[in-house]
Amino acid sequence: MRILSKRQLKELVLYSPQHVARLEKAGQFPKRVQLGPNRVGWVEDEVLDWLQQRLDGREEPKRHS
């Protein structure tokens, strides 16, 4: 299991920390893990699953004839 830092998370999902916090609060993003009094992280597999759901939900590109 790998834990992502805030910096690693931002590189992966391209959201601001504020937007991630809003999504977490709304139950629309994997919850952070409290690692210490001033340190949090996210489980990489949970974040990758979340990203895969977004990819799976995309519409198929329409082909022009």
3D structure, described in words:
This protein is an alpha+beta fold and 65 residues long. The chain has one domain (3-56). 46% of the residues lie in helices and 17% in strands. The chain has 3 helices and 3 strands. The protein has a 3-stranded antiparallel beta sheet. A hairpin with a 2-residue loop joins strand 2 (33-36) and strand 3. The radius of gyration is 14 Å and the shape is elongated. The N and C termini lie far apart (46 Å). InterPro entries: AlpA. This is Transcriptional regulator.
Average pLDDT over all residues: 93
Which structural class is indicated by helix and strand composition?
alpha+beta
- Tell me the domain tally: 1
Provide a count of the helices.
3
Determine Rg (CA atoms, Å): 14 Å
Low-confidence stretches: none
The largest β sheet comes out as: 3 strands, antiparallel
Helical content (DSSP H or I, runs of 4+): 40-55%
Overall shape: elongated
The arrangement of helices and strands along the chain is EHHEEH
Number of strands: 3
What is the first-to-last residue Cα distance? 46 Å
Strand order of the largest sheet: 1-3-2
Q: How much of the residues is beta strand, in percent?
A: 15-25%
